Every structure is written in C-alpha cells, then in structure tokens.
C-alpha cells in the first residue's frame, strides 16, 4: 500500500494536475451553449483521467488490456451513479439474452399484453468501450418518454473481439426479434434499429443486411454515427476535434475494431490505407468524384492488413460504402455541430435522399456523445431535452 501511495503521489497526481491545467487552457468550441460547458469539461476530463490510469495499470502489469481496464473503470463508475427513480418506477427492466446475446429489456408497465413499437438500441463507444449499464441513464429515459419496449444490446467489444463480431451480435438480436418480438410485447411490424456513434454504425449495417434479405424494419435512427474509415481528411475531422472525440481517437477506435491493435493509426491519419480507392466509385460516396478520372481500384499500399482492405468496402463495417441505399427504411439522422463525425452523417443523408429514402436530419449545437453525457445527473441541458423530444416524436410517428 505504501508503494502504491508513493506512486500515486509522485506520478498520478502531478499528471492529473497537468491534464487539468491543459483542459482549462484549451479553446471551447465557439457557439457551444454555456449550459453545456460543465458536462463537456467534467466528462472529458474524467474520461481522459481514467484512460491514463487504465494505460498506466496495463503498463505496470495490472489487469487486462488498456481498453478493457478503461471499460472496467467506466463500468464501476456507472454503478454508483444515482438512479432515475421516475423512469424505473414506470418501466419493467430485465436483463436477459436474445439469440444468446446479453440484452437489457425496458418495457412500460402500463402496456400489459398490448403490442407496441420496439426500439433495438446499440450503444456507442468506438466498438471498444461502453455497455448497457453505462448508457442506462439515456436508454431508460428514452424508453419511458417514447412509451416503447427498448432492447439495449450488450454486443462484444474490441480489442478482444474485432469486426465482424459486433455486427454479428447486433444482427442476431434484430433478426430474432423480427421473428419472436411478440413474446416481449413488440409489434414486429414496428421495429426500429437505433444507436449512437459506433452503435449508429451497427444500426445502419443491420438495416442494410435486412434490406438485402427483404426483411422489414419500420425505421432506423442514427445518432452521430461513424459510417466509414476510408477518409480521415473530411472537413469535420479536420475542424471539429473535441475533448470527447478527436480525430486521432477516431482513428484509434477504427484500428482496434479492424485489427485489435492501434497499429493502423498512422496509416489511417495519412489515408495511406485507402489510396488504392481514389478515383473509384467508393471515393464518390464520400463526395470526391471526378467521373472523367474514375478507374477500377488499384493495388493497395504494402503492409495493409486484409481485414482493413476488406472492411473499407464492406457495408457491415462501412455502411457509407454500400453500393446502393435503395430500399432502406425511413431514417432519422442526428448530427452535432462540434463533432468530427458530422460529415459522415451528412454524406449518408445525401446518399439516402438520392436513393429515394425518406430522411429526417436534425443537427444540434452540441458535441459528440452529448446525449450520453447530458443524460447523466447534474449535466442535463435544454439541448438534451429538445433532442429527446425530437427522437420521441419521431418514434411515436412510426
């Protein structure tokens, strides 16, 4: 214990102090409403501190991988947060399994045996962190206010499980609910897939797969989704770094998702991994198109793993790279003004509209992960409340 306190006193405390000083010296996104500042600073500082401690623990041989250590700390933190007693009195909440995948099912008590809309929700976290517990403050409130059965999916995480494990888990749950949703009080004609960030990616990918199988979804809700890793030089990547998701962090998450390691980060940031796709149909999907120069894909750069090359053009990993978006269900896309992923959402919106899909797009003056952060006690804002009202209205209109 004495050695631990010595390490803590001489290493951890000074580092945390340096991080804290740096945080408060950084420029706040211009235009961010004042009531959102506390949530952004506290949550991002807390996340970076936990990340530092997780990596330190891994370095000295404690615990598992750094990301698993980090997620463990986030899980412990979520367990001590105050409960939303109002929502939990209204809901029957049960943990279980669907298609052998862990889930949490939120069901309004007043429904009884009445069939209602079902929302299958995939949490965010860069495919590497996050859990149904960590997102409980948001999902419980959404289930209550929308008056729906909500199924939150505990899909597997990288680096232990790389692509396509996450997709397989998400797809298995939705496909099973389409066949057996009635036993959970879900009208199988009114199933919505939804998710934020990495979860938005999974929702979009599942919708594409089910479309190809001629299976019906009522709608998809994509909340600041990550939809491609072909191009990390899009304007929002370059101009909207925030403390909760930076350009480099986005590249790290994708590297872990595709390979289980951070080894591809430098290549991703330089776009070396996708040079062979320039001037192909795939570059047109990200708004870069010179039909006069369009060609077939060239030979990839040396050293790019097959998993990366395949994932670049596989819609299960990169929904924006799907050859056609025709036949998808109506879609709600939510983007944030201060978010490196904003352009992913805008590009998907444009392609959906071109494909004849009915799209509702809402952009909020907020930052990446604001629905999670501001659903936490003490950080609630009007932007959160408005976004929740908008999502609830959309769900009720399905």
TrEMBL record:
Q: Name one GO cellular component term.
A: membrane
The cross-references to Gene3D superfamilies, in alphabetical order and at most eight, read:
alpha/beta hydrolase
Spell out the family assignment given in the record's similarity comment. Belongs to the 'GDXG' lipolytic enzyme family.
- Catalytic residue positions: 197, 339, 368
Q: Which organism is it from?
A: Stylophora pistillata (Smooth cauliflower coral)
Q: Which domain of life is it from?
A: Eukaryota
One GO molecular function term of this record is:
carboxylic ester hydrolase activity
- Domain Alpha/beta hydrolase fold-3, by residue range, is 119-268, 314-370
| Pfam families for this protein | Abhydrolase_3
Bilayer-spanning residue ranges: 6-24
Keywords recorded for this protein, A-Z: Hydrolase, Membrane, Transmembrane, Transmembrane helix
- What name does the UniProt record give this protein? Arylacetamide deacetylase
